[in-house]
């Protein structure tokens, strides 16, 4: 797996637990969502009721799980965690819902990946705090209504647009998480370094922040890798020089691109004259699956303004040529 992967890798969840902000005040950035959520929670506390269901949308690694945990903590309620792909049958969801107590917070990660029958059961549970559990099959099947104590659903999705309208409409509040500014990632790196008891200089921390692709999860992971380097190859302190050497070793460049990202740009510019070229051809040329190029490398290249998706294929932007240290071809300069 890549060091710049935005999803949690392997047993990383355990390492991350130590670095999670525990209150809304500890959360760095996302001012708008934070303020909106603070209001929702305070109002619910004032009424002595479970808050409205909350939908959090945004790319992986930006803090959706963290916010769900904070919502539960601020309400003084237990949190149950599950995910869309884990709920393959409506029965799986019924089992979870029937075990809930009043005021519990249920976090469903990747909620857009739930099965259709489970989704329909969830609509009803969210709206009426009731589900129909079907017992038996065929003509003898009976639906037994089951009351659910009022709870708060926190759903997370990479894109709110992936959710069917009826499900989206049942959330009282939707928070969109944005990529973080380098300045905010710098604060996160410093905070994490404090928790991990790692010494780092201001420019060392800024260097890690600027290569973290706007994503706290990646910032924290790069910090752990650079810490290893500092401990083994230096005197333990993360300076600018140590950060640069370590990240060079892990092949993360100054814009946060890794080997795969640069490979795609390199093939696109050097072999195909900057495109347009079809993604399948591009994938073969870098020796990767089409999906890997499309889902792993491209989103960040597009976001960074290095690659454009056009109807005729992928095109390198002038910034891509410059990034590779190549002269921008004349026909691309316009
Ligand atoms: P998601 O659920 O969106 O994939 P997580 O909530 O699991 O993301 O966050 C990933 C990691 O990044 C966690 O270790 C968390 O501590 C850190 N993190 C995310 N958002 C913030 C933030 N706003 N401030 C500080 N740390 C954050």
From TrEMBL:
GO terms for cellular component: cytoplasm; Holliday junction resolvase complex. It holds the Pfam family AAA_lid_4. DNA binds at residues 290, 309, 314. One of its GO terms (molecular function) is four-way junction DNA binding. It is found in: Cytoplasm. ATP binds at residues 19-20, 61, 64-66, 127-129, 170, 180, 217. The keyword Cell membrane does not apply. Its main location: cytoplasm. Residues 254-334 are annotated as: Head domain (RuvB-H). CDD domains: AAA. Residues 181-251 are annotated as: Small ATPAse domain (RuvB-S). Mg(2+) binds at residue 65. It catalyses: ATP + H2O = ADP + phosphate + H(+). GO terms for biological process: DNA recombination; DNA repair. Residues 50-183 form the AAA+ ATPase domain. Signal peptide: none annotated. InterPro entries: AAA+_ATPase (IPR003593), AAA_lid_4 (IPR041445), DNA_helicase_Holl-junc_RuvB (IPR004605), P-loop_NTPase (IPR027417), RuvB-like_N (IPR008824), RuvB_wg_C (IPR008823), WH-like_DNA-bd_sf (IPR036388), WH_DNA-bd_sf (IPR036390). Its EC number is 3.6.4.-. The RuvA-RuvB-RuvC complex processes Holliday junction (HJ) DNA during genetic recombination and DNA repair, while the RuvA-RuvB complex plays an important role in the rescue of blocked DNA replication forks via replication fork reversal (RFR). RuvA specifically binds to HJ cruciform DNA, conferring on it an open structure. The RuvB hexamer acts as an ATP-dependent pump, pulling dsDNA into and through the RuvAB complex. RuvB forms 2 homohexamers on either side of HJ DNA bound by 1 or 2 RuvA tetramers; 4 subunits per hexamer contact DNA at a time. Belongs to the RuvB family. This is Holliday junction branch migration complex subunit RuvB.
């Amino acid at each position: 797996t890549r060091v710049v992967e935005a999803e949690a890798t392997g047993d990383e969840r355990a390492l991350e637990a130590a670095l999670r902000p525990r209150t809304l005040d500890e959360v760095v950035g996302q001012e708008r969502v934070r303020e909106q959520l603070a209001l929702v929670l305070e109002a619910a506390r004032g009424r002595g009721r479970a808050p409205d269901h909350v939908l959090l949308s945004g790319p992986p690694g930006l803090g959706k799980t963290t916010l769900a945990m904070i919502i539960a903590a601020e309400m003084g309620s237990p949190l149950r965690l599950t995910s869309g792909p884990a709920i393959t049958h409506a029965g799986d969801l019924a089992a979870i819902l029937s075990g809930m107590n009043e005021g519990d917070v249920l976090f469903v990660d990747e909620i857009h990946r739930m099965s259709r029958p489970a989704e329909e059961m969830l609509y009803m549970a969210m709206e009426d705090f009731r589900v129909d559990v079907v017992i038996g099959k065929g003509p003898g099947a009976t639906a037994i209504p089951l009351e659910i104590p009022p709870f708060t659903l926190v759903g997370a999705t990479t894109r709110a647009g992936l959710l069917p309208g009826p499900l989206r409409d049942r959330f009282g509040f939707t928070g969109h998480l944005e990529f973080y500014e380098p300045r905010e990632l710098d604060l996160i790196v410093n905070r994490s370094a404090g928790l991990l008891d790692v010494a780092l200089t201001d420019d060392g921390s800024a260097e890690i922040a600027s290569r973290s692709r706007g994503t706290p999860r990646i910032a924290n992971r790069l910090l752990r890798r650079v810490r290893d380097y500092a401990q083994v190859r230096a005197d333990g302190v993360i300076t600018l020089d140590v950060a640069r050497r370590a990240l060079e070793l892990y092949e993360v460049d100054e814009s946060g691109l890794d080997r795969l990202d640069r490979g795609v740009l390199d093939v696109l510019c050097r072999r195909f004259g900057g495109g347009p070229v079809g993604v399948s051809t591009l994938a073969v040329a870098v020796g990767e699956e089409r999906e890997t190029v499309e889902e792993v490398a491209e989103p960040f290249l597009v976001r960074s303004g290095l690659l454009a998706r056009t109807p005729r294929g992928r095109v390198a932007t002038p910034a891509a040529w410059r990034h590779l240290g190549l002269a921008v071809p004349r026909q691309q300069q316009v």
